[in-house]
Amino acid sequence: MIQGKIIDNISNKYSVKIDVNIYTCDARGKFKKEKLKPVVGDNVNVSIVDENKKTGIIEEILPRKNYIKRPKLANLDQLIFVISSKMPKPDLLMLDKQLVFAEILKIKPIILINKIDLDENTVKEIEKQYKKTNYKIIKTCAKTKEGIDELKEILKNKISAFSGNSGVGKSTLLNNLFKESKTLEGSISLKNKKGKNTTTNICLYELEENTFIADTPGFSSFEITETEAENLAQFFVEFKEYIKYCEFVGCSHIKEQNCGIKKALEENKISQERYKRYIKIYEELKDKEEHKW
Ligand SMILES: Nc1nc2c(ncn2[C@@H]2O[C@H](COP(=O)(O)OP(=O)(O)O)[C@@H](O)[C@H]2O)c(=O)[nH]1
Ligand SMILES: [Mg+2]
Ligand SMILES: [Zn+2]
Q1: CA 44, CA 9: separation in Å to the nearest integer?
Q2: Where do you find CATH 3.40.50.300 in the chain?
């Protein structure tokens, strides 16, 4: 057996990259029985069926670092959440939901502010609001290629996925990256994929050796139902350390007295704007919980 990485999956066929070659593989029937299907991003052991035709069978799925259900994707190293300074206006509530989602799944989030040429003040404001999170913030102008080199550096030797609302500049950024790419995948325009009728299909593009970008329809449909409102504050990274100062177990950090987070807020240790969005998401989650039954 030989180890490879699944980079594409259409119905029951998997494209597995083994060294420099791509093999078309089936999966062993046992996976179906075990209800564990291989997904894009999986590292797998393959037995070769025909070396000339480059076909094989997936025998084993190696342990996953993480797993996203929708779209199905394993072993992501980082999620890059793209917003723009203007046109469209940055949707920070959406960004915070996605950051929570990344925290829940234990995938490193990175904030990318694109279109920095359009509104400098908004860029500064966003940086201010997220300073205490310590999340990496990359600023780019896809038009002038400012920041693209830094982005490239961050992508190196990792599997990354981009997510963000329509119009923020994801395609422009990716085209910039892939234009100079020397790999086979890079030379194929991202546009080739667009003809496909299934929007849920996901694949990995190799930007350079060992550097993969997941081509996803985006994660905006992700709901953060994975968590209960009670636990939300744990996933607001800069809030976490103040929870221990709350008087009440199960403090919602909204109406209670002697709340560590509210105290930190008063002392400007956390951003008012992030806190306001925390409340909004908390209430949305509560609402969902109440309507479950
Ligand atoms: N001014 C400016 N416009 C940009 C920038 N990046 C992308 N755009 C434009 O924004 C529009 C939407 O970009 P696109 O890449 O299609 O966004 P997507 O929907 O996220 O894929 C296009 O007209 C781009 O030319 C940028 O950094 N600055
Ligand atoms: Mg696009
Ligand atoms: Zn509290």
Answers
A1: 13
A2: 73-215
**pLDDT tens-digit profile of 68-124?**
988 889 999 999 999 999 999 999 999 999 999 999 999 999 999 999 999 999 999
The residues near 226 (Cβ < 8 Å, ≥ 6 apart) are 101, 104, 105
At 28-47, the pLDDT tens digits run 999 988 889 999 999 999 99
Cβ contact 118:169 at 8 Å: no
**CATH class for the region spanning 73-215:** alpha beta
Q: Give the span between the Cα atoms of 140 and 137, in whole angstroms.
A: 10
> Is residue 190 scored above 70 in pLDDT?
no
Q: Is the CB of 194 under 6 A from ligand 1?
A: no
Please tell me the residue having the least CA distance from ligand 1 atom 9. 169
- Nearest atom in ligand 1 to the alpha carbon of residue 166 is 19
Structure tokens that stand for 273 in this block: 């704007």
CATH number of 2-62: 2.40.50.140
Q: Where in the chain is the domain with CATH 1.10.40.50?
A: 229-290
What is the average pLDDT score of the chain? 91
Answer whether residue 281 shows pLDDT above 90: yes
